[in-house]
Automatic annotation (TrEMBL):
PROSITE patterns: ATP_GRASP
Pfam short name (any one): CPSase_L_D3
EC number(s) per entry: 6.3.4.16
Superkingdom to which the source organism belongs: Bacteria
All copies of domain ATP-grasp, residue ranges: 132-325
Reaction equations catalysed: hydrogencarbonate + NH4(+) + 2 ATP = carbamoyl phosphate + 2 ADP + phosphate + 2 H(+)
Entry protein name: carbamoyl-phosphate synthase (ammonia)
Family: Belongs to the CarB family.
Lineage, opening ranks: Bacteria, Bacillati, Bacillota, Bacilli, Lactobacillales
Keywords: ATP-binding, Ligase, Manganese, Nucleotide-binding
Length: 833
């Protein structure tokens, strides 16, 4: 039963996005907030991530835009007196702050409970010795390891366990990677670096080449447990699990092996008294699956738990939140779309989901592209299909971000480089495997070189057989049917056959063949459920139908990349919320398993498909949306969709190619909301570049930028004249440069970038995404909007981009906006320093 003593809860947010954490933490916090409110609980949130939807959807009086640290969290607790805090949606930083609060006895003194993570769990997180003791106490195996403080201690451990070994610095502030040492020389070099700042290190037995399996499970306070998902890493230990291709359900384990991992997961949850969810990682001997180690325990939300929820359709965060409040699994009441037994039933899948990493190397070419125990991917995409082959190809298509639906090739790679990359993988891992098969490498050879199970090479070989069929037998209905069953898109065939995509579609439409859609739900069709998440198939039965006569389709950005993509996911989610509020049924199409915009509470229906022309047209044919919204960076899709004149296509935000040459140097800007009839001044904004005043290197923003009244009025009048001649509408930014003499001159005009749109929302307290949606749907009362403009003269708002350089181990002198991974925001009074 719900604990009636809990009336007010503080959620610790995840802070700025970074490698290993994009939007899944905020998506979880948002879903938690929804569940808490349904139980009549007041929700407080602390976070300094400007792209947090949770901050936008909580009452302003209950939002604290501050960095997650001990002082700030304690200040909020003392001011608001919450009954409990929830740190599990805030990543490691939130966990460490909670540990400090507990260790100092502050929470007990103030009568504040911790929900979602037990004291037993907090003791073992980031403490390998205690974790090893805990694992061994229930007769489960842990990787042999020991904490060392000196070179002599390190070599003593190595004499016991032998090479190769992993070294990991113990750091209580951030997660750290493991470095592999194969001999004494490598160990000496590594220790010299690790101990230079009096660090403490862990040395452990290397299990490189072992199979990586993950489990996600939930447990209630009555000790009832269910396994939500098993996740198999296609890459072996040696490649960080965050950089591996991941598949669900598990494909290459026998039932006895799988059940032993399930049992170990449950034993661990019992030992640590976990109420809620837990993610556990295992390493299995590839020659003997019964020989395994538990390598990591994560009793908190992360990308693996997000993937488990997306793969199964199980409402993991909602169920978990109810467990934290004291409900048992049988007591949880879900939305009517779910079967009443869903919370207590272990999910069964009738589909396959494959996650494909997305890399930052186009934007940070200095980074080492070899995959190892350091996570380097900044996002991922998923493919969902009836078979491994179909899911694999959909995931690959989704991850390539090609404007056209083509299968990339590595045919130019030399034989020596091919062998090198098979042994020492890089980010284009899958394409190298495909190329090796094209060149006739045998499956057993490839397994030996890569440590990847033969099963996956046979699946890739089948895809190559279908590719050959497409080349040899063009424009045949039978070819199209086989290709569709294996995940090939219409655009892929059209490019191969040098035909317009319409010709390919006409061929199978003439035979009465259209794609059907299957629900992603946790009972494999056993229960009658109305879960609104779908993937495409070409089987006969269609489980999706037109949502309504008044539907808006919003196309997501896909997998997270560097640049504005975490902001773009927030923007997409806000669009969906606002479109729903003005009366549209909303549909989102996206393929990012961590996407905030795929949270089921945000839209009426979700499609997980490659964001490519053929897949979009298929959904449009079924749903017949009255509006289609395309992200501003999808120029090819926009051009293609505009050929279909019956579609009402709108680009939001309007950051598409404008044809306008922007200036080199800028100092500040004036922001306006522009209608067909008038330009409304909003604010001044300081554009802070980290490379002189170069616009390309502007990565921080501050408002207001102080001008005297006369100068401001001159700038406003000049800005309006440029706006009038530009014919642009919506949010528009006028750029000025101030020379060394203090003289200002107009230098350019552009649509307000989406990151700055969100910054402006935080600074003014006005939801400008909402304003744009209402404006483009002719629902905006502009006079009412401008009446609510606050006086911004007394408060300074500052937003600073964050970058992944430290995690990628690179030094960049001047970061540019295309290298951003997230941002942080803060406020101060004008008189404060």
């Amino acid at each position: 039963m719900i604990d009636n003593k809990i009336k007010k809860v503080l959620i610790l947010g995840g802070g700025p996005s970074k490698i290993g954490s994009e939007t899944e933490l905020d998506a979880a916090a948002f879903q938690m907030m929804t569940a808490l409110k349904k139980n009549g609980i007041q929700v407080l949130v602390i976070d300094n991530n400007p792209f947090s939807l949770t901050l936008s959807e909580v009452q302003p009086a209950n939002v604290f835009i501050k960095e997650i640290n001990l002082k700030n969290v304690l200040d909020v607790i003392k001011k608001e007196s919450p009954d409990a805090i929830i740190p599990i949606a805030g990543g490691l930083r939130a966990i460490h702050v909670t540990q400090e609060l507990l260790n100092q006895g502050i929470l007990s003194d103030l009568g504040v409970r911790v929900l979602g993570i037990s004291k037993e769990s907090l003791k073992v997180i980031n403490n390998p010795d205690k974790m090893k003791i805990a694992i061994n106490s229930i007769d489960e195996p842990a990787v042999p390891s020991k904490i060392v403080r000196t070179d002599s201690e390190a070599f003593e451990v190595v004499r016991e366990i032998g090479f190769p070994v992993n070294i990991k610095k113990v750091n209580h502030k951030e997660s750290t990677e493991r470095i592999i040492c194969n001999n004494a020389e490598e160990l000496s070099d590594m220790l010299e670096d690790e101990f230079e700042d009096d660090s403490v290190c862990i040395i452990e037995k290397s299990i490189v080449g072992y199979k990586q399996i993950e489990t996600v499970a939930v447990r209630d306070q009555t000790n009832t447990k269910i396994l939500i998902s098993g996740l198999e890493n296609i890459d072996a230990v040696g490649v960080h699990s965050g950089d591996s291709i991941v598949i669900s359900p598990v494909q290459t384990l026998g039932d006895i092996e799988y059940q032993s991992l399930r049992t170990a997961t449950f034993k661990m949850m019992d030992l640590l008294n976990i109420v809620g969810l837990c993610h556990i990682q295992f390493a299995l001997d590839p020659n003997d699956g019964s020989n395994y180690y538990i390598t990591k325990i994560n009793p908190m939300i992360n990308s693996s738990s997000a993937l488990a929820a997306r793969s199964t359709g199980y409402p993991l965060v909602y169920v978990c939140t109810n467990l934290l409040l004291g409900n048992s699994l049988p007591e949880i009441q879900l939305h009517a779309n779910y079967h009443r037994l869903t919370p207590i039933m272990e999910p069964t899948l009738d589909h396959v989901v494959i996650k494909m990493p997305v890399w930052p190397f186009d934007n940070v070419p200095e980074a080492n592209q070899h995959l190892n125990t350091t996570m380097k991917s900044v996002g991922s995409t998923i493919g969902v299909g009836r078979t491994v082959e179909e899911a694999m190809l959909k995931a690959l298509r989704s991850s390539q971000f090609s404007p056209r639906d083509v299968l990339p090739s590595m045919y130019e790679i030399s034989s020596d480089e091919l062998i090198s990359q098979l042994i020492h993988p890089k980010s284009d891992r899958l394409l190298v495997l495909i190329e090796a098969l094209r060149r006739g490498y045998q499956v057993d050879e490839l397994e030996e070189l890569t440590k990847i199970n033969q099963f996956y090479f046979y699946k890739l070989k089948e895809l190559l057989d279908v590719e050959e069929l497409i080349i040899k037998e063009p424009m045949k209905l039978s070819t199209i049917e086989v290709a569709h069953d294996h995940g090939f898109g219409d655009g892929m065939m059209a490019e191969t056959w040098h035909q317009p995509i319409e010709k390919v579609r006409e061929l199978y439409h003439a035979a009465g063949e259209y794609p059907t859609y299957k629900a992603i739900e946790p009972s494999a069709g056993e229960f009658d459920q109305n879960i609104r998440s779908f993937y495409s198939s070409y089987e006969i039965e269609n489980e999706s139908s037109q949502e309504s006569e008044k539907t808006a389709l919003v196309i997501g950005r896909g997998g997270n990349k560097l640049g504005p993509n975490t902001a773009a996911d927030y923007y997409t989610a806000e669009m969906l919320i606002q479109l729903h509020r003005i009366g549209y049924k909303t549909i989102v199409m996206n393929n990012n398993p961590n996407a905030l915009s795929l949270s089921p509470q945000i839209s009426d229906k979700q499609y997980i498909e490659p964001i490519q022309l053929g897949a979009i047209l298929n959904i449009i044919e079924l749903e017949k949306p009255v509006r289609v919204f395309i992200p501003g960076n999808r120029h090819f899709l926009l051009k293609q969709l505009k050929k279909f004149t019956d579609l009402n296509v709108q680009v939001l935000p309007p950051d598409q190619e404008t044809g306008v040459v922007l200036p080199k140097d800028v100092t500040y800007a004036l922001n306006f909301f522009v209608t067909q009839d008038e330009s409304y001044f909003i604010s001044t904004e300081k554009l802070i570049s980290n490379n002189k005043s170069d616009l390309d290197y502007v990565t921080a923003y501050e408002t207001p930028y102080v001008l005297d009244d006369d100068a401001l009025q001159r700038d406003i009048e000049e800005s309006k004249s440029h706006i009038q001649s530009s014919n642009w509408i919506g949010l528009v930014q006028i750029l000025f440069n101030q020379n060394k003499k203090g003289e200002s001159e107009y230098v350019g005009i552009r649509p307000l970038r989406l990151t700055e749109t969100i910054f402006l929302s935080r600074a003014t307290g006005i939801n400008w995404v909402r304003a744009l949606v209402r404006f483009y749907t002719k629902r905006l009362d502009i006079n009412e909007l401008m009446k609510n403009m606050p006086d911004m003269s007394n408060r300074v708002t500052h937003m600073q981009a964050t970058f992944p350089f430290k995690q990628l181990n690179v030094k960049v002198d001047h970061a540019n906006s295309s290298q951003e991974v997230g941002a942080k925001i803060k406020f101060r009074l004008v008189d404060d320093k």
